[in-house]
Amino acid sequence: MKKNNIYYNTKIESLLKAYPNSKFFLITDDNLFSLYQNFLTTTFANVDLSITTIPEGEKAKTIKEYQRVVELLIKAEIRRNDVIVAFGGGVVGDLAGFVAATILRGVTFINIPTTLLAMVDSALGGKVGINSEAGKNLIGAFKNADKIIVNEQFLKTLPQQELINGYGEIVKAAFISDRTIFSLLTDDQPSLKLIKKVQKVKLALVKSDYFDKNKRQYLNFGHSFAHAIEKESNYQVPHGYAVFQGMEIALKIGMVLKITTPSDLRLLEKYFSLYQIKPYQKPYFKLLKYLKNDKKNTQELTTLILIKERALIKTMKEVELDELLSLASEL
Known about the structure:
This protein has 331 residues and is α/β, with parallel strands linked by helices. The protein is 43% helix and 18% strand. α5 runs parallel beside α6 (160-176), α5 packs parallel to α7 (192-208) and α9 (239-256) runs antiparallel to α10. The chain is globular and about 60 Å long.
């Protein structure tokens, strides 16, 4: 990842001057386009701009939608020196980034995250991709954004649910690496200080393990279960809410293994109460079939991230995980 490629509260127009001979292909979702059409028209007024919209939500991260977008851009005569811009949350960034990574074997990518979740997590680290019928983010690539433009003004229009989605990733970062983050968490608008502190956690792990073979996997705390919960619900459970539920399951498994202390579970429950998150209601073993396709698994082993003061990696056989899930459900 390029150093110093994150820009805070910077005028987008000034950053576009770095690409004087490029056409800009902006990808956003239908809802954001209706909210920000005038803003986008004004911001990109002095460049050659083409806008493509996609459906809102995870239903856009499909092979069919990916192909539709690629074909539209090819028909619009995109060239290798052009720039794809993502304007939106995690779904928009994932899909647009994957298009940028693959069309013409790769073009320049700019990410303008508009949600808290994207600002603190999905816009960072270079992972882009789409879902398969078997699970979430199973088709993808590594593609660093040339520029990531973080502007606090976009957070002011977010509904509470979208803020809570981001808080799931923020609480995760606090558990795995920096517990001073907890002191900055409230139910108010997040501060730029908080955003930067959470970004620092992710960027440090990405720098140490870009291709996700070791310590970068700490960032998946709660996510194996979260992705299973999302898939089981046909993506009706928002990602951040699923992360909260997934962290609870992971902490309980850690308690069964006598790795995690009950105080950590009580700490998480504090944020369940603050953000009005409901625990996962079904027996945990029902998630097992969705865990089989998790990207972090190797051969017959399932990889989980557990907490012992900070994060650690634990691998286990499916039969062992099945038993642990049953025991954890009883806590």
